[in-house]
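Quarterly update from the structural biology core.
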Amino acid sequence: MASPDLFPNVSFSHVSAPAAAGTSTEVTGGATAVFGRDASTGAPRLSLVWSGETQAKHTLEIDLSDAQIFKLGPTEWLCVSGESEAKDGVEEHILNGFMLTLNSLRQKSYSRAIKVVLRTEAESKAFYLAFQQWKHRVISGKAGEPLENGLIIGSKSKFDTKIEASSAKMYFHYYGQLLHQQNMLQDFVRTGTYYAAVMENRSDFEGRVVVDVGAGSGILSLFAAQAGARHVYAVEASEMAEHAQRLISGNPSLGQRITVIKGKVEEVELPEKADILISEPMGTLLVNERMLESYVIARDRFLVPGGKMFPTTGRIHMAPFSDEYLYVEMANKALFWQQHNFFGVDLTPLHGSAFQGYFSQPVVDAFDPRLLVSPPTFHTLDFTTMKEEELYEIDIPLNFVASVGTRVHGLACWFDVLFNGSTVQRWLTTAPGSPTTHWYQLRCILSQPLYVMAGQEITGRLHLVAHSAQSYTIYLTMSGWAFSISFVISFFPSIALEADGSCSFGYFLEAKMWGEGAEQGGILQTSTAKLELKEPYYRLSQPQPYVMQQDQQQQQLPSLQPQSPLWDYHYGQD
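Predicted structure, tokenized:
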């Protein structure tokens, strides 16, 4: 097998438009294709070196910075270079049977086209990968050799047009550190479920081409190789690609079937289509970090029709919850701003803003499922069919029936994903009450709780809007019926005739009620919240001891609430 940067015994020929019309071109055989850098400029280049009739060495240099590559056959590639701007309109070149169509207002033409023929299909694929990797200064492919950052391509990729550069820099820096990869690897629910899903469905991987989208440490690529994948392309945009290369090289029995590619899935090119995609694209609330969009883009770019995706489907689960302790904890954070004499300064003008600010943070922690007020509902995302644009804005209607009478403090959320294998279907869940994962669960707290009775309907809307900082703004609305009713209790005398003929005297009670909502059972109350998914409050506690509702009610601190309770009884007597 050839070196990743050197390919011996290749054939090449100069190709031009007249050649396709019947003009012959001279084929040079026995050449060596070498990828490297220009000694003076450091620019990436492809050198074709061969011996002439006098045994003198000849070299043909191709500058990769303005070169493109096109596949002509299983072992044949067309390298075009010498880019220049052409006139408006459509320009077509027939290059040795290959039509290159350039259709845009600013066309590009190429002064030179070289046809390169490799010895085997394996070398052909390796040649293509080397071309792409050197062109974008991605990786050298040599075990343990330092990796270089990719160059910014002239035209922005889809990722770059959606995501702020500062956010992307911090994101890739975070996932380029081994301590964060360790945190995910040590989530044995996560890692163990992925391993089981792959190994229990070996038939989906054996002899197949796999693309690992956002490979990180490369662990999922190694799982796929263990399951018998013919080849795995591990695509990773952060500096973790260097660590992944070393880890994979350190497991040579598996690593020989894995190629690490440093770059974004929106930008890199692969020499062949994938039979199956594997990825761990889930963030908090499933969608945080917006990697699901890259997963869907990878599907559209690399997956063969009917190919499999691991995971296949994701679901966001939601249910209203009641947690007086959490509500008071969040409200207490703003007590600092209730000071009237902080070194002679009255801080109270900022209390309202601080109060709302703390309630704009989703809470990430593990909680007792008995805090849920009703059975949950869920929203499904089918990764195999959904469009990327569907993830830009997610609108979920809410409809629940309260199981108990209590105060509703907000909406609890978690997610699960399905690995729909041909042999075994396996779920990875982050639900409360299940073994805790590094995702925990997420709760959106209402600054003004709702009061509900058992059997009452709770409606609303969960609206997620993506933004360029790789996250979402959450708009939550919840509504329910509350009581604000006046009572009149009347006592009427009553005389009853007993069986023995005697009379007994007593009273019977009649209660009447009126007021707004008396006929409907209460008045409609609505509470809203705007939260930033990117800026949660990481409470990260284990599930709190469950407290009976009456005990929780005793913990209320009414003075912390921005409004008085809606319960308002008026008693009267005739």
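The mean pLDDT is 81.
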